[in-house]
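2.7 Reproducibility. Because tokenized structures are sensitive to small changes in the input, we list the exact sequence used for Regulator, including any N-terminal residues retained from the expression construct. No trimming or masking was applied before prediction.
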Amino acid sequence: MFDKKDISIVIADDHPMILKGLHDELKAHNYNVLGQAANGMQALELILTHNPTLALLDIDMPLLTGFEVIKMAKQKKVDTKFIILSFHKENDYLIQAKALQINGYLLKEDSFLEIENCIESVMNGEICFSSSFAASSLATVSEEMKRIKLLTPSEKTILKLVAEQTSSSEIAEKLFISIRTVEKHRSNIIMKLEIENTTSNALTNWAYLHKNLIMEL
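Resulting structure tokens (single pass, no recycling of outputs):
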């Protein structure tokens, strides 16, 4: 069992009322809140300066998103564990969270009790997702992650270029390969990701929708 006062926390959200409410709840329950930030850059600075036990972050913030903060903080080898607090329920966000190996993902509609339960789970080395997420949704995300891991380094490189709306001819020129080779790679990617529509345009659409995740590969 851990002592709440020993858990240092940084919180970040660009909505003042949400930030204040979260701060007040954490303080009222005896957590050690080291600082609060209204944008991603402030959040990153607080994390790198204080190396808190936990950081509770919104996703959509000015300057840096919550995901960008986590990625940059992890690159600096901080020991901080990360919990996302967001309105976003879409699978794409869950996939990004899993790709970044985030410790927890809660929704802003969740009660403070669920936040406390998540903190306890994370402190015990577990991964915590909001109970509002359907088990089928989490399973779907896990399957997508497995499929993405099947891609070779070359396929990942091409997928990133596709996500940036780069044409096959431009990819071929950039990578010094033939257009035929690019199209073969695209076909293999479609097969591995199990994209239903097998046209090249279908891959472009899929890559555009999953661009944030693809850029983390």
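The mean pLDDT is 89.
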